[in-house]
Amino acid sequence: MIIKTAERIRELRMKNNLTQAELARRLYVTRSSVNAWEMAVSIPSTEKIVELCQILHTTSDYLLGIDSAEILPIQQYSFEEKELLFGLVKYFDAAGKNNFSKSQ
């Protein structure tokens, strides 16, 4: 589980365009702490896992390797912003279906 967590921290940090130093600054830890988490040398405390999930826009189940579904929480967005996000999801779903049917 620790290796999967390490991989996911790194993957999500990069998807969010954060350096180890930037993530460390936002978590009030050292860059070497973030590096140790990503190298599976150590694991973040429970408190830092919660903060990581908020910063990296995911759930603790995904971060810890319990669930394979990457989730983007949207509760902080307004109704209009959520509508825009749903529209984008529909667009990408349709584009993916079109690409899938063309490749067969």
What's the order of the H and E elements?
A: HHHHHH
Shape: elongated
Described by strand count, sense and barrel closure, the largest sheet is: none
Instruction: Evaluate the radius of gyration.
Output: 16 Å
**Class from secondary-structure proportions:** mainly alpha
Query: How many E strands?
Result: 0
SSE map:
Layout: H1 2-15, H2 20-27, H3 31-38, H4 46-56, H5 60-63, H6 79-103
Helix pairs in contact: 2-3
Summarize the structure in words.
- With 104 residues, the chain is an all-alpha fold.
- The chain is 67% helix and 0% strand.
- It has six helices and no strands.
- Helix 2 (20-27) crosses helix 3 (31-38).
- The chain is elongated and about 40 Å long.
- It starts with a helix and ends with a helix.
- The mean pLDDT is 87.
Briefly characterize the structure.
The chain is an all-alpha fold and 104 residues long. The chain has 6 helices and no strands. It is elongated and about 40 Å long.
